[in-house]
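FORM 12-B: Structure-to-Sequence Request
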């Protein structure tokens, strides 16, 4: 969850409202519901086809393409495209949003925040990944809780407007006159689906490497990944959207200007400057939290987004390990990873100083391209997930602790010996725990 909840859940929703109007929030939620099934499928496949490299479990779309479909060349293309995307371009939106948040809250120049993020990222990727990511994992869940509490406060403060706001969201999604707030139902669909997919990254394969890293007795035990999409997109994104809609703190690219009183004047100035993004959420929180709100959102978003940056590095490293497999390429792997550790912080500094539109377009480019490449593999291998699901359900109905038996359900490309050693280890751990 520390990896999943990030830029798209806060700033991404603000961008969706600006580009597509209130109806985009409805489509964002629909995308979250369907994306949970996609995430469930791709993560199950990733666990099924995982193997051990340098003492760690590794997998992902490229591994599934080679092992599950026998497409070694496609796997190499996948790994190269995905690796470059998550290292070079996906960090753009996250980095820009962190810098923008602190600029709005404290007036800190973008380049200073970008430099701090780049240096912190350099420290992480040079050796502190486990420690810092574990701290972030402890901090982010409580921050999500605090964020949702802030939403509840805004809901209570604007309780009388809730029915009309929900009606507006639905009517805009289906092309009423109010859809003009966002330019029409087509743009609402485009932005809702795009931002809903961005917030969870389901379909692009981002969750697959982390799913495979865990030790599980059955590939379907990573079902929590699916639940994470619901919390991430359906719950947190909706919270962000309702904050802005109930307080009126959002503009659209087609001329709608929100806010009331002094807040309307501020929203009008943002519209005149062409400014949108996290500042919408900061203004929304300010209506009930006062002047502390911008800093609160900036700090929270920094935590959310920085854990995303850590995950991007991990995913890029997984692609490098795929492209340079084998003991004879160990030295090459180390060199390429070291280059990545240097280049990524430099680019992070650059992305913190570019235009908002360019930052989001770069991240969308990586997301969209990776999704097309990954979903072909996921769809072709999905029958294996159905078989695993049936096996899991049968064991659950028999009141057994589900485990994967590679002798019962075995397909070409599955590392049978690894799974058998893995299952023996889990059995031994259970016996020791009982003793």
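FORM 12-B RESPONSE
SEQUENCE OUT:
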């Amino acid at each position: 969850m520390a990896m999943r909840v990030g830029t798209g859940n806060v700033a991404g929703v603000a961008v969706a409202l600006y580009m597509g109007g209130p109806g985009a929030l409805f489509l964002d939620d629909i995308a979250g519901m369907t994306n949970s099934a996609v995430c469930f499928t791709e993560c199950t496949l990733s666990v099924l086809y995982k193997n051990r490299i340098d003492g760690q479990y590794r997998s992902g779309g490229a591994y599934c393409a080679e092992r599950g479909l026998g497409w070694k060349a496609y796997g190499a293309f996948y790994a190269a495209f995905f690796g470059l995307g998550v290292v070079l371009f996906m960090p753009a939106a996250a980095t820009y949003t962190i810098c923008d948040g602190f600029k709005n809250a404290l007036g800190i120049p973008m380049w200073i925040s970008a430099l701090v993020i780049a240096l912190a990222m350099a420290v992480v990727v040079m050796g502190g990944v486990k420690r810092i990511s574990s701290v972030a994992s402890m901090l982010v869940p409580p921050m999500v809780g605090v964020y949702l509490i802030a939403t509840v406060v805004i809901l209570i403060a604007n309780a009388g407007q809730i029915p009309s706001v929900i009606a507006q969201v639905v009517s805009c999604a289906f092309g009423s006159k109010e859809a003009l707030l966002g330019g029409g139902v087509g743009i609402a669909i485009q932005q809702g689906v795009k931002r809903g997919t961005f917030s969870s990254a389901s379909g692009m394969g981002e969750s697959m490497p982390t799913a495979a890293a865990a030790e599980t007795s059955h590939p379907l035990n990573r079902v929590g990944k699916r639940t994470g999409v619901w919390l991430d997109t359906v719950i947190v994104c909706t919270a962000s959207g309702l904050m802005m809609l109930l307080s009126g703190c959002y503009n659209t690219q087609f001329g709608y200007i929100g806010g009331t009183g002094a807040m309307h004047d501020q929203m009008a100035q943002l519209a005149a400057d062409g400014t949108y993004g996290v500042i919408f959420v900061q203004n929304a929180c300010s209506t009930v939290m006062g002047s502390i709100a911008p800093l609160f959102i900036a700090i929270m978003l920094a935590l959310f987004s920085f854990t995303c940056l850590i995950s991007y590095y991990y995913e890029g490293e997984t692609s490098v390990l795929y492209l340079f497999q084998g003991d004879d390429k160990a030295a090459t792997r180390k060199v390429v990873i070291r280059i990545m550790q240097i280049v990524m912080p430099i680019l992070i500094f650059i992305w913190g100083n570019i235009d908002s539109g360019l930052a989001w377009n770069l991240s969308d480019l990586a997301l969209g391209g990776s999704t097309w490449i990954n979903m072909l593999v996921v769809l072709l291998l999905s029958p294996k997930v159905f078989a695993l699901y049936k096996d899991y359900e049968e064991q659950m109905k028999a009141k057994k602790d589900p485990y994967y038996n590679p002798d019962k359900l075995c397909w070409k490309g599955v590392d049978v010996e690894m799974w058998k050693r893995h299952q023996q280890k889990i059995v031994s751990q259970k016996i020791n725990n009982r003793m």
